[in-house]
Structures are given as C-alpha cells and as structure tokens.
Amino acid sequence: MKQFQSSDIRNFAIVGHGTSGKTCLAEAMLKLGGETNRLGTIEDGSTTSDYHPGEKSRQISIHATPLHMEWMDKKFNLIDTPGYSDFIGEAIGSLSVVDLAVITIHAVNGVEVGTETMWNHATKLGIPKMLVVNGIDREHTRFDTILAQVRSRFGNNVFPMQLPVNEGPGYDQNVDVLRSKLISYQADGSGQMTEGELPDELQEKVKGLHEELIEYVAESDDTLLEKFFDEDGLSEEDMRNGIHRAIQDQTFIPLFCTSATSNVGVARVCDFISKYGSSPDDRKTITAHDQQGNDVEVSLDGSDTVLQIFKTVAESHVGELSLFRVYSGKVKTGQDYHNSDRYTNERFGQMFILNGKNRTQVDQLSAGDIAGVVKLKDTHTGNTLCSGKHVTLPPLDLPNPNIHAAIKSRAKGDEEKLAVGLATLHEEDPTFVYRVDSEVKQTIISGQGELHLTVTTERLKRRFGIDIHLEEPKVPFRETISANGEAKYRHKKQSGGAGQFAEVWMRIEPKQSGEGIDFTHSLVGQNVDRVFVPSVEKGVNTACSDGILAGCKVVDIKIDFYDGKMHPVDSKDIAFQTAGKHAFREAFLDAHPCLLEPIIDIEVKVPEDYMGDIMGSISGKRGKIMGVDADGSFQVIKAQVPQAELYHYSTTVRSLTGGRGIHSESFSHYEKMPKEFEQRVIKDRQTVEDE
Questions:
Q1: How far apart are CA 318 and CA 534, in angstroms?
Q2: What is the torsional sign of CA 604, 610, 615, 618?
Q3: For domain 8-196+252-283, which CATH number applies: 3.40.50.300, 3.30.950.30, 2.40.50.140, 3.20.20.190?
C-alpha cells in the first residue's frame, strides 16, 4: 500500500441534514476515484457506505462509515455520516477526528436544522467548513434563494465557487468562478467534464464574482493584498496559498453546486479539496494531558505514537474493529501500545483501510492517517493509545440522550446475554446508554430518538438472539411531606417462646428540597436503650426506600426518635426495626404527604412556521414555556415539562415539524404534583400491587 505524508492526506467528514445527499456524494467521489465501477443507489441498496441491514431496509444512513480514495496524488479519508438527529453521535464523533467538514445542503429545502447543527459542531471543534448544495437537478431547485439564505445564516463570506447554468431536471453545466470557464458534464454518470468559454450573457457576472474572489483571497494576507494592488491581480499559485489560508481562518467559506446522483459538479469538489482543502498539517498539534493532568502538546512531527479510537464496530465476519486516527508517530502491526485511559497494553494485529465492508490490509500508517484495527482486548471508543510518554487525548464530546425506554428479556435465563449485548452496543455507539435503575426496578435504555432505540434493539435481537420487549419506563416519583407529623407505635408479638416488644415515639418535619433524610434521636432517661437507635433507623430507611403512598422513594424529611419503651427480655433489633418502620409510616401519613415529580428542561429548535404547534404541544403536556430565542431563521423554545409527559416526545417533535425540528432534554428539579395527577399515580401503583 502506498504511504502518504501528512501533507498529502485529506481527512473530511460529509455531514448535513437527513436526505441532503451525503451518501450519494460519497458514492460519486468513490466512482471518480476508481474505488467503484458504478454509482450505487440508496433505492437498490448498492451504495458502498450504507451496507448494514438496517440502513438498506430504511434507506437512510445509521452508521458513520469511513471510506478512502486517491485524487490528484492525495489520499482522501472521507467519512459518510448520518443526517438524522437520532444518530447525531456518529456525525459528531467523525467531526472530532477530521480536518474539514463538507456540509451538504438540500437544493430545494435549503438550510435545515441539521445543517445548522453540523455547522455549529464544526465551529465548536475549530474545523474549517465548505458547503455543497446538492441535488441541483431536482424540480423546484432555487439556487439563488438558497445562496442568499446561506449567506444570511452563515455570513457573507460564503462564496459560490460554481454557479448552475441549467438548474432543475437535465442539469449538466456549471460556471467555474475560479477558472472563469463553463464546465459541461457527460450524462452517463461518469463525472467526465469538458471546459469551454463562458457565454456572453454570463461574462459580466462571472467577472465580478472572480474579482470578488481575488479580493477575499488578498484580504487573508497583507502580503497578497499589497501584491494584488501592485500587480493588479494574483497568480494561480498566489490564489492557491491565499484560498487555503482563508479557509483555515474561515474568513472564506467556499460553496459548490452538484448533483451527486448524476455525478455533476463532484469532480470539481474533489479538485478543490485536493488543492485547497485542509490536511493534518493544518492542525499539526493537539492538546493532551500527561499522567499528572498537565497540558502537553502532541505533534505530527513527534516520534512517539499517539492515536485515538473514535468508533468501534462489531461485525460477524471480522469481529470487533476499532477505528482510529494517528496524531503522532507511526503505527505498525505487531507493535505494543499503552492504553492511557485504562492502564493496559494492547498489541496491534491486522490493520485495514476501509471502504464500507471492503477492507484493504496495511502494515503501517503515518501520522494524520485513519484506519481500523481488529481484536483489541480492552480498548474502548474515545481511548488513547500511545508509545513513550503516557498522554491522554480529550474525550469525544457526545450529546446526552433524549429518549428512554425500559427493556426486558422475555425468556428467563437471558439476563446475562442481555447484559453482554447492551454493553457491546454501548461500546459501538456511546450515545446509546443503559443502566439498571434500582429505584424503579427496571433496566433503562436511552438514546437520541425513537428510531435510535428501535435500530439498536433490532441489532440486539439479531446479533445476540435475545427475545426482548420494550415498555414505558416508570417515572421515579418521590414522596415527601408538607407539614409536621407525629406518631407512637407499639410492636408486640408473642409466638411460643421468645416474644417481640418495642415502642417508638417519633416526630417528623419537612426539609428543603434536596436535603435528603436526616435521622436523629433526642432520647433522655432510660426508657429505651441507645443500642436500639440504629435498629429504628434501619426501619425508617426501609420505609423510605419502599415508599408509603405509591411505592416511591421518600425524600427531604427530618426524623426525630424522641422516646419509647422496651422490655428487658422481648426487646430486640428486629422489634425496634418493625416499630421504627410503622411509627414513621403513621407520622408520615399525619404530615400532609405528597408526591413529587421530576421536571425536565427541554429545548426545541424549529423553523419559525412550526413554533405555534410546538408551544401548543408543550402546554398540552403541563409544560411551562420559559422563553423563546431567535437563532437565524429558527426559533429555540425553552420549557420545563414533567418527565411523565415526555415519553416518545422526540417522535412528537418530528411529527409536528415534518422532521425539521430537534430537541434536547436535561433534568431540572423535582416539584409537587397537582392533586388530580397525584391521586391517579397512587391509584395506578396500588392497582399494580393488587394484581
């Protein structure tokens, strides 16, 4: 396999809103690069990247798929990413290891929520961006409108490197602004093109744009600006250096026009990436941490190997495959590397560069490159492997889950298989999380959306042979009091020989939210031996754990065990545990008990047209609108909603907005429930207990 220096590598992720043509663009690039001999289509399931069963059946990207090709003596490591918000973790993880974000925009729909999301993530990561308006051959294409929209949203430094001549069905010509030429493409999907002179009617417009481009380039560098004025222009080499620098500084955002399905305009995108796009040299160093937690710089020029795992894939015919980027040194088969996150050593076996399910074995990789390695023993997504000094690269910044469900195996004895399966799937996709919730006594799985959970559980069933079902997760309501209470409880039991006797006098009062349970005693005299105080506390803790009104955890109460009685023979630990539990129960019921429910902070980002529908849905779920912020052409609605009302809310948002809205959730606080809902919960819980 040909070895590439870091300056000759182009790592980029193709990102954007769902259905904006990312997979088709990747497919067209692979065809041009000679990696495939035909343009695969999503409809017939023949694309190189969307090769998993779930992707073929749903005709959407679910996984981030690394691909590679050569173009103009440069190695392209491109990652095709999902556009649906359910799988956003795949796109974010990919952005974290590339040097350029290629953001696709639907030629009819324009800037959508997913477009903005990927733009913002790339900006946050400091990654240069370029834009591709894809699908120019669609009916109702409106390039000028979309260009104006893009500039309004992302800035006037967005510059059209191409203009479509005949947008809509039959589209096969672009004006190349950089070269001031008319580019015509063959209709056979080969991507072959010919250059010609501009038609007279376009001469003036293109001349103006070309001059504007030169000014953009010159403004990125004082030396170039001086040369521009002195020589009344810039050479092609000057333009190359200036464009590259302006892209790195993001003072210039190039925009291209394509139809990936017919391979029109894609070759010029590849040319541009090769000539002007970012290489690993442009992000030469990355800040890591040493063993003491101090910042250290990891450089491409370093002799020690440093790499990071950014994705884990488990496939039946290959086993587990860890995808990684090399940030320093060289990586070789047969070498040992230290996992600085887990303090273990790993020996590298077979390494591959990837095109979907197709693998090409390699023995060595240089700094800046991307590949996969099989069968690492104890290495996980986000881990750093290194030689020499131990360093740890920053963890992947992945979103919190937005939807939850309870999972249960139908067959007894499958619990262990289920645990292994859940752990494996979390390893492959860290945005899928699970936990055993002792409070509600369920295994809770969480993800980015309903489709995310559906796809994940399908994989669980298929790969691990587990018959499972999902159910609504129980809401972790809490119980507390709103007034003082008091009780005296005597426990007396005689059964044959030894008896049981204990009497507990108890007072309780409410505490502030979040202060927890505070058990004290104020015993005086000798009515109760102090040895029984822990016994009473055990009984109280049992009652708090089991719940009293609805089987929910009791919180935020001060308990005082202030007096009681005992028997010299029959008083023992179990008797005072029982008396303590029942005394607390009676005092609790005397103290105006109530249920608390968890309140969730939500943010919903939608096009302005859908704002009324979303606000109406929030109000219908007992939610409170906390504010609305404008974000370009979108509105961000902030609200607080009871958790009990949010089951499948991601589906609601998608339904109300036609897939153009996204939302996020985070826990806020607990608050008292309205009485009518409280009584409903209590009745439901009692019904379940009686069954």
A1: 57
A2: negative
A3: 3.40.50.300
Q: Three-state DSSP class for 347?
A: strand
The DSSP 8-state label assigned to residue 21 in this structure reads S
Reading the block at residue 594, the tokens are: 């109530």
Written as six digits, the tokens of 386 are: 């290194």
pLDDT of 514-526, one tens digit each? 999 999 999 999 9
Do β-strands 485-494 and 499-510 pair in parallel, antiparallel, or remain unpaired?
Answer: antiparallel
Instruction: Classify domain 285-386 by CATH number.
Output: 2.40.30.10
Are 404-471 and 596-686 equal in CATH topology?
yes
Q: For 237-305, what is the HEC assignment? A: HHHHHHHHHHHHHCCCEEEEEEEHHHCECHHHHHHHHHHHCCCHHHHCEEEEECCCCCEEEEECCCCCC
Cα Rg of the chain (Å, integer): 32
CATH number, domain 479-591, options 3.40.640.10, 3.30.750.24, 3.20.20.140, 3.30.230.10: 3.30.230.10
Q: Dihedral through CA 328, CA 329, CA 335, CA 341, nearest 10?
A: -20
- At residue 203, what are phi and psi to the nearest 5 degrees? -55, -50
CATH of domain 404-471: 3.30.70.870
Q: DSSP secondary-structure letter at 608?
A: G
Name the stretches of the chain with pLDDT < 70.
1, 228-233, 235-236, 315-319, 496-497, 688-691
pLDDT of residue 389: 85
Per residue, the 3-state secondary structure of 474-522, as one string, reads CCCCEEEECCCEEEEEEEEEECCCCEEEEEEEEEEEECCCCCCEEEEEC
Q: How far is residue 296 from each of residues 290, 345, 369, 386, 421, measured CA to CA in Å?
A: 6, 21, 21, 14, 37
Q: Are 414 and 465 in contact (CB under 8 A)?
A: no
Q: At what angle do helices 236-249 and 266-276 cross, to 10 degrees?
A: 90
Residue 627's Cβ-side half-sphere holds a number of Cα atoms within 13 Å equal to 4
Half-sphere exposure in the Cβ direction for 122 (13 Å, CA) = 27
- Measured CA to CA, the distance from residue 613 to residue 604 in angstroms comes to 11
Pick from 143, 376, 134, 393: nearest CA to 264: 134
CB 115 within 8 A of CB 144: no
- CB atoms closer than 10 angstroms to residue 367: 26
Helix, strand, coil in percent for the chain, rounding step 5? 30, 35, 35
Predicted pLDDT of residue 690? 58
What does DSSP say about strands 553-554 and 478-481: parallel, antiparallel, or unpaired?
Answer: parallel
Strand, coil or helix: 134: strand
Copy the structure tokens of residue 653: 């948002």
Encoded amino acid at 665, one letter: E
Q: Which two tokens stand for residue 333?
A: 């088969």
Predicted confidence at residue 450, as pLDDT, reads 87
pLDDT in tens, 425-439: 888 888 999 999 988
Strands 193-196, 181-185: pairing is antiparallel
CATH match for 596-686 among 3.30.40.230, 3.90.226.10, 3.30.70.1230, 3.30.70.240 = 3.30.70.240
CB 218 within 8 A of CB 228: yes
Residue 300 and residue 328: Cα distance in Å, rounded?
A: 4
**pLDDT number for residue 1:** 59
Listed in sequence order, the DSSP H helices in 310-439 are 415-428
Residue 585, classed as helix, strand or coil, is: helix
Are 462 and 431 in contact, with CB atoms under 8 Å apart?
no
Please state the domain extents for the chain. Answer: 8-196+252-283, 285-386, 404-471, 479-591, 596-686
Judge contact between 301 and 284, C-beta under 8 A. yes
